[in-house]
UniProtKB/TrEMBL annotation:
Keywords from the named record: Methyltransferase, S-adenosyl-L-methionine, Transferase
Full protein name: Valosin containing protein lysine (K) methyltransferase
GO biological process, alphabetically ordered: methylation
GO cellular component terms, A-Z: cytosol; protein-containing complex
One MF annotation (Gene Ontology) recorded for this entry: methyltransferase activity
SUPFAM superfamilies the record matches: S-adenosyl-L-methionine-dependent methyltransferases
InterPro entries hit by this protein: Methyltransf_16, SAM-dependent_MTases_sf
Organism phylogeny: Eukaryota, Metazoa, Chordata, Craniata, Vertebrata
Cleavable signal peptide: none
């Protein structure tokens, strides 16, 4: 889909940053799951701004100059937030979502001063050599819902992450249909190769957190 076609089918979701600026994310009225800004993406985007990562008055900015890769970026909301905080970001998703990603990158370009952001195609489970060396951070928001994507997603995480990579995964726990089974499969497979630390709500953004939305820090087993 071309960028102008995307524009005509979209409305804007705004994410207020702590400095008063606004990340504007276009999402589509119609389309697959990748066309929507999910709640977990907002929770993760705001988590990147919490004082442990970003506290300008104390001279803290973990994101400055860090290499960040977002998987299943969809609208690019999380990656855009990281880029506005100074990270060098690559947002990835399937070919059909590239136009939407490009539109949102263009929309927020003026907020991205010291950071950078580019969109690339990445299909889970396939070749990842163009994304080497391993990024310092991998971000994933609400990507655990298709049974057939569990194995390729974990495979991609294994291939993309190095010993220093921190994977930050945010997902909404869902109790309907196949969701519990898919989540269980994902974590069983993940824990064969990675350690997972759940982030308590007091370390998340006080306004943008929810009991059924979980944030995990995931690292390769040594």
């Amino acid at each position: 889909m071309a960028e102008d076609a995307v524009e005509s089918k979209c409305f804007v979701r705004e994410i207020d940053k702590n400095d008063g600026s606004i990340v504007k994310v276009k999402q589509c009225y119609m389309g697959d799951v990748g066309c929507v800004v999910w709640d977990a993406a907002i929770v993760l985007a705001k988590y990147l701004e919490t004082p442990q990562f970003y506290e300008p008055s104390a001279g803290v900015n973990v994101w400055a100059g860090r290499t960040v890769l977002e998987l299943g970026a969809g609208t690019g909301a999380v990656g855009l937030m990281a880029a506005t905080l100074g990270a060098q970001v690559t947002v990835t998703d399937l070919e059909e979502l590239q136009a939407l990603l490009r539109v949102n990158i263009e929309e927020n370009q003026e907020l991205i001063r010291s950071g950078s952001i580019t969109a690339k195609v990445l299909k889970w489970g396939e070749d990842v050599s163009e994304f080497f060396p391993p990024p310092q951070y991998i971000l994933i928001a609400d990507c655990i819902y298709y049974e057939q994507s569990v194995v390729p997603l974990v495979e991609s995480l294994k291939m993309l992450s190095g010993p220093e990579t921190c994977i930050i995964c945010c997902y909404e726990q869902r109790t309907e249909g196949v969701n519990p089974k898919v989540e269980r499969q994902f974590f069983e497979l993940l824990k064969q190769h990675f350690t997972c630390e759940e982030i308590s709500s007091d370390k998340q953004d006080p306004q943008f957190s929810s009991p059924d939305i979980h944030i995990l820090h995931i690292r390769r087993k040594v």
